[in-house]
Amino acid sequence: MGSPVLRLVAQRVALGILLLFAVSVLIFAGTQILPGDVAQSILGQAATPEAVANLRRELGLNDPAYVRYFHWLGGVLTGDLGTALTTRQEITATLMPRLWNTLFL
Question: Hey, how many other C-beta atoms are within 10 angstroms of the C-beta on 54?
């Protein structure tokens, strides 16, 4: 009697995980096709090409997009959401105070 219910719950959980994966791929792909260079935006227009190249290497922006995505996904699965590119702050540290307020509501 409990088997159909467990199967339904398992299907919903699996579909939820698949949906989260699909949404993360779409958002990542969407950010990759945006015009501009993140390193240039961080350093500004007066930055030297060497400084931009160094920052791109430091941030891993020279790697192919799929490598960056799977690196990010591996971090997410281990609880590391990464670092914001523009502010260089840990995303987890930024989200935690807001997450508590959201859960409280």
Answer: 14
AA identity, residue 56: R
The answer to whether the pTM exceeds 0.70 is: yes
Assign 97 a pLDDT band (cuts: 50, 70, 90): confident
Q: Name the residue ranges covered by the structural domains of the chain.
A: 1-34
Q: Is the dihedral of CA 16, 20, 21, 23 positive or negative?
A: positive
**83: three-class secondary structure by DSSP:** strand
Measured distance CA(7)–CA(23) in Å, rounded: 24
* Dihedral sign for Cα atoms in the order 43, 26, 21, 63: negative
Q: Report the mean per-residue pLDDT for the chain.
A: 91
Radius of gyration of the chain (CA): 19
